[in-house]
Design goal:
With about 220 residues, the chain is mainly α. The chain is about 80% helix and about 0% strand. It has one domain. α4 packs across α5, α4 packs antiparallel against α6 and α5 runs antiparallel to α8 (about 165-185).
Amino acid sequence: MKKFNMLSVLFILGSIALIVFAVAFTSEFEYSTKNYPFMMGFLKFFLLGTFGELLKYRISNGHWKLDHISERSMVWGVFGCWFTMVFAGFSFLVDGLINIGLWPSGVYIMPDFIWVALSKGLWLNVLGMFGWGMMVTHEYFNFVISQRWTVFSLRKFAEHVDRNFILVFIPKTLALFWVLANGFTFTLPYEWRVFTAALLAVVLGFLLSVGKKKSRPA
């Protein structure tokens, strides 16, 4: 059985090319991100988010072939535009709360800039509920795609979804990993935040595969 198909190979090569572009042509990458934020946000998740899902299927099923990959990649691209706004929005949210005295600007146990970055990761993933909502939304669109865009019912989705995965694994992952991971992201310059989040989507692919394996009954 073939473990690859042509589209899978293109997304793997495209992800590698994007990473090389970011690392080897830093100035051009930052210019493109700053001047074309939505286009670049779409591209980063279109490639890297899809690669993360390919990784998930490789770990779960032993091959790199992903059903309906073109549709899944478009969903990831739209998520990239969403991330472009959300990372800026939560950054301004925490900065605004600090400026008007509704959130502490620092704590004694760590440098202020690290505390502020972790605060943004905390608001993004826990207090603002974006992290959980994003992951559940992605699962919902995977369900809709699997139904060939004929079923949009939230009730049907709730009947289909692994509730232990949604209600236990995702919250634990957000608390134990994503607050710190996205906290690190917020220490980076603006031009690198969505790209780093897209790289973390590859980690998400790994975590989703491991989480779903653990949530299955023995």
